[in-house]
Amino acid sequence: MRGRVKILSLLPSATEIVFALGLGDQLEGVTYECDFPPEARSKPVVSDTALPQDRRLSAKEIDDFVASSMDRREPIYTLDRELIRRVQPDLILAQDLCRVCAVPSGQVEDALSELGCSSQVLSLDPQTIDEILEGILQVGQATRTEHLADEIVAVLRGRLGHVRARASGLPSVRTLCLEWSDPPFVGGHWVPGMVEMAGGTNLLNGQGKPSKRVGWSDVAGAAPEVVVFMPCGYYLEEAETEVEGLFDVADFAQTPAARLGNVFAVDASSYFSRPGPRIVDGLEILAWAIHPEAFPEPPADRVVQVR
Fold this sequence. Notes:
The chain is α/β, with parallel strands linked by helices and 307 residues long.
């Protein structure tokens, strides 16, 4: 693509990548969740949620709504087709990794076909941190900003290498990352690899595998020494409120992490749920939670040690 590229981003992580590449002025539409950098909030919303917005839903209500929508094969997200028709984008950044997280690229391509648009759809579907960085390079290639993408990735790789090197000689700590509370899910995709990189032994799931529903008896049986509560799409204040309820669950309260005060709530939306440049900040948060003796404490607006 040459000249100005009209971009639609259907992923908060992709929006962050676009701005990091200096292309914010070419972004013609974003999702309702795109809030970083703050300038993203001023962009037209092309993808919205079908979740009820009249009140705050509990974790179980959100899970029930999503499960019901998937059973009925109803979309969880909506697309502003009129905006797509009007913009006639050159490039749409989408995903097929998780129907629950964002609009799947198949839904996008169906809309483009109906509208007669010939946009390029770039699907970003990382399963590991390395693939997250590769996604930045892919967006750079699609927008002819390869040099800047290379520079960004080089800096991020340097930070990753620093964490790896510092954690390599430390004893491994049994670590559980909870991505949802009702019902309980453990983190998947890139999260297990982050735990291993930060000097932990990830419990109940493996790198590159989807997030996984577990039982509280599984959590107790895993005997985590550290629990990091990272509910998908939640910011720190929401996560901190939600995590308190976990201590009412007997199987959770008896874990070594709960008994020893090694339970952490994090800003998951910013640093764990979105596979973009800030995922490396998430790794640094994890490294401190797992090995506070070896890593600097992150800013207070990113993580809280609950009890």
